[in-house]
């Protein structure tokens, strides 16, 4: 007679109790919000990503990542968790903020595992190299700030693949080359590219951008300010293109930017006259066109703008200014050719400039062929 194989009841009970305890501990953790990489697959992926980043950091003088140990990634410094957008019962990493950490290192490809990340703030560190190729996997990323680092290479094209990105800050790095025109077709609220080595021509589709802030200072721009800039009238609050090598006229369409509060075109090679259309910038508070080669008269309507508090037009070749310009809270008209005003250019310098062949600007604000009389 064959003996049946049997399982000891106490052993079965032990297994059942162990499984029940495991399920119960997971349920309690979920209810109490104590989810970790041990019981949450999303946080497990985040753990892998964050540990890879920690290994890629070569210097951490402020010890920001000291507590990046163990499965409780939501307790890591600079890591912010919230309810997953597609699962109300699951926690996920939604933000990573290590701004001003003075961290040195590079970005690992594993950052692409943070697929629910909405905010990535890593400014004012010493990260070098390039952004990871896995960046497009961050489909929910809303804000990307890697400014004030030591990033090199070309413009990170994979930014264009981020469907929900609204804020891009790449300023104060060593990025170089062209900036793709497609950037200005993205529905971005802010574009900061300044203080890099980008060398490109302002594209005709610049005006497609719905951004409220565009900063292109201290770059190497070519070409003209395209007339399409006028299409940004309903959204653009700040346009800063100082010291960017612009060599053109100021197009009339700049005067259509009714929401503009700051316009800085200083330290370029702008020529021609200040457009009368700028008198339509009723929200403008700060206007700086200093250190260019503008000439003629200052339109009275510009100095009559109701919100204008700071108007700088020094180091040009303006010949006249309305008296009301001097009533603006802060005005700087030095080193022009304005009779009767102090600290102006020498007379011979003004005469030499005014005897140069006049600059002809076409309908696009670009230099046209010289006018022959």
Description:
There is one protein chain. With 373 residues, the protein is an alpha/beta fold. The protein has helices at residues 9-32, 41-56, 300-303, 347-354; strands spanning 57-59, 79-84, 87-97, 104-105, 119-121, 126-129, 143-145, 150-151, 167-169, 176-177, 190-192, 197-201, 213-215, 220-222, 238-240, 262-264, 271-273, 286-288, 293-297, 310-312, 317-320, 330-332. It contains four helices and 22 strands. A twelve-stranded mixed β-sheet has the order 2-3-5-7-9-11-13-15-16-18-20-22, covered by helices on one side. Strand 2 and strand 3 form a beta hairpin. Mean pLDDT is 90; it is low at 1-32.
> How many strands, what sense, and barrel or not for the largest sheet?
12 strands, mixed
Tally of helical runs: 4
- The neighbouring-strand order within the major sheet is 2-3-5-7-9-11-13-15-16-18-20-22
Helix residue percentage: 10-25%
Question: What is the element string, with H for helices and E for strands?
Answer: HHEEEEEEEEEEEEEEEEEEEHEEEH
Total individual domains: 2
General form: elongated
CATH superfamily of the largest domain: Ribonuclease Inhibitor
Q: And the CATH topology of the largest domain?
A: Leucine-rich repeat, LRR (right-handed beta-alpha superhelix)
Give the number of DSSP strands: 22
Q: Residue-averaged pLDDT, rounded?
A: 90
Please state the structural category: alpha/beta
Task: Give the low-pLDDT segments.
Answer: 1-32
The CATH class of the largest domain is: Alpha Beta
| C-alpha end-to-end distance | 124 Å
Rg from alpha-carbon coordinates: 29 Å
CATH architecture descriptor name of the largest domain: Alpha-Beta Horseshoe
* Strand content range: 15-25%
């Amino acid at each position: 007679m064959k003996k049946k194989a049997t399982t000891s009841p106490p052993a079965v009970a032990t297994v059942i109790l162990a499984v029940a305890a495991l399920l119960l501990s997971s349920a309690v953790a979920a209810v109490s919000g104590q989810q970790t990489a041990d019981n949450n697959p999303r946080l497990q992926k985040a753990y892998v990503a964050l540990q890879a980043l920690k290994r890629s950091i070569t210097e951490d003088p402020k010890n920001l990542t000291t507590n990046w140990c163990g499965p409780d990634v939501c307790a890591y410094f600079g890591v912010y968790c919230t309810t997953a957008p597609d699962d109300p019962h699951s926690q996920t990493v939604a933000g990573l903020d290590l701004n001003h950490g003075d961290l040195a290192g590079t970005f690992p490809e594993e950052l692409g595992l943070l697929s629910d990340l909405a905010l990535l703030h890593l400014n004012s560190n010493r990260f070098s190299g390039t952004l990871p190729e896995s960046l497009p996997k961050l489909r929910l990323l809303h804000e990307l700030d890697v400014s004030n680092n030591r990033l090199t290479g070309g413009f990170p094209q994979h930014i264009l693949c981020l469907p929900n990105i609204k804020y891009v800050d790449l300023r104060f790095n060593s990025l170089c080359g062209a900036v793709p025109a497609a950037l200005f077709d993205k529905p971005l609220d802010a574009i900061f590219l300044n203080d890099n080595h980008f060398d490109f021509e302002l594209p005709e589709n610049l005006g497609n951008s719905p951004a409220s802030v565009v900063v292109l200072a201290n770059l190497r721009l070519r070409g003209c300010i395209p007339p399409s800039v006028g299409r940004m009238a309903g959204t653009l609050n700040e346009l800063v293109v100082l010291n960017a090598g612009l060599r053109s006229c100021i197009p009339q369409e700049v005067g259509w930017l009714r929401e503009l509060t700051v316009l800085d075109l200083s330290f370029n090679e702008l020529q021609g006259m200040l457009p009368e259309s700028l008198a339509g910038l009723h929200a403008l508070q700060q206007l700086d066109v200093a250190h260019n080669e503008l000439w003629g008269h200052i339109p009275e309507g510009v100095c009559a703008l109701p919100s204008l508090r700071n108007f700088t037009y020094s180091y040009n070749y303006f010949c006249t200014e309305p008296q009301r310009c001097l009533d603006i809270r802060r005005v700087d008209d030095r080193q022009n050719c304005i009779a009767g005003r102090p600290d102006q250019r020498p007379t011979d310098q003004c005469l030499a400039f005014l005897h140069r062949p006049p600059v002809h600007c076409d309908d696009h604000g670009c230099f046209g062929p010289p006018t022959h009389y």
